Amino acid sequence: MSYDFSQEVINDLEKLFFDETGYDVIIYAGENENIKELHAHSCILCMSQYFNAAFSNNWVKRKDGKFIFEKLNVSPELFRIVLRFIYCGKIDFTELQRSDVLKILFIAKELNINHRDEFLRQNPVEMLETIYKHELLIDLWNYCLETICEEPKILFESDKFTSLEEPVLKSLLERDDLRLNEIEIWDNLLKWSLVQNPSISQDITKWSCKDVEIIETTFHKFIPLMKFYEIYHQKI
Question: Are 84 and 91 in contact (CB under 8 A)?
C-alpha cells in the first residue's frame, strides 16, 4: 500500500517559508530606504540553479554562520513572492500590476527558475497579457501559446478566461494548432462576448435585435478566424 502526502509536504514547506524557523540565509533586497532583510533556508534555495551555484562554488558571503546575498536592484516584496514559489510552487499574479508581473518573470529568469509551465498554469491570463506587450519576451510568448494550444483547458477552463483582452485572444485563435474543435471555440467566444457586454442576457432566447447587433460587433474580428464548415460537419 502506498500513500501520497505531497500536499502535506507542500503545506509544511510553505509554513517553513512564513515562520523562517532555522533560517541560514539572509537576503538584502531593495534599494535606498526600501532595503529589507529576507530570511530563507539554503537547503530549499539550492533548488534554484542560481543559488545552487552560489553554494557549490563558495562565492556567496558568509557571516556568523549565515549566507549573505544582496539583491539591491530587486523589490523585496516581489523577491519574496519568488522565494515563496521556490518553497512551495505557489504564485499568484492576481493582485499585481502588469509591470510587477514582468519584474517577477525577470527575477525568475535571473535565478534560473525554469518553471514557466507552473507560472502559466496558475496565472494564464496574467501571463499572456503581460508577455504580449513585450517583444523581448518573444520566446516566452511562443512557449505560452504552444502550451495552451496543446492543452487549451489551461486557459479556456480558467475562471479568468473571459477577462482576457481581445488582441491576445485573437492571436491565439489565429493559430492552426489550437486543439479545440470549432464548436468549442464558438461556445467560448460566446461566453467571452457576453462578459464583455454584461447588459445582455445569458439566455439567447431573450435577446433583442439590438443585443444581436452588439454581439455581432464583438464577434466581428473573430469571424474570419472561424471554420464554419467544420461546425457544420461536427453537428451532423
Answer: yes
> What tens digit of pLDDT does each residue of 54-106 get?
888 878 889 999 999 998 788 999 999 999 999 998 888 877 887 888 888 88
- 1-90 is classed CATH 3.30.420.340: no
Domain positions in the chain are 1-90, 115-180, 181-236
Q: What is the pLDDT of residue 130?
A: 86
The torsion defined by the Cα of 85, 90, 92 and 98, in degrees rounded to 10, comes to 30
pLDDT digits (tens, 9 = 90+) for 191-225: 999 999 999 998 888 999 999 999 999 988 888 88
Q: Residue 223 carries which DSSP code?
A: G
DSSP-derived secondary structure letter, 91: -
Cell 492576481 locates to 94
Residue 31, SS3? coil
Pairing mode of beta strands 66-71, 36-40: unpaired
Q: What are the residues whose beta carbons fall under 8 Å from the beta carbon of 125, sequence distance 6 or more?
A: 155, 158, 160, 161, 163, 164
CA distances from 232 to 24, 181, 222, 235 (A): 64, 11, 18, 5
Determine the 3-state secondary structure of 122 from DSSP.
helix
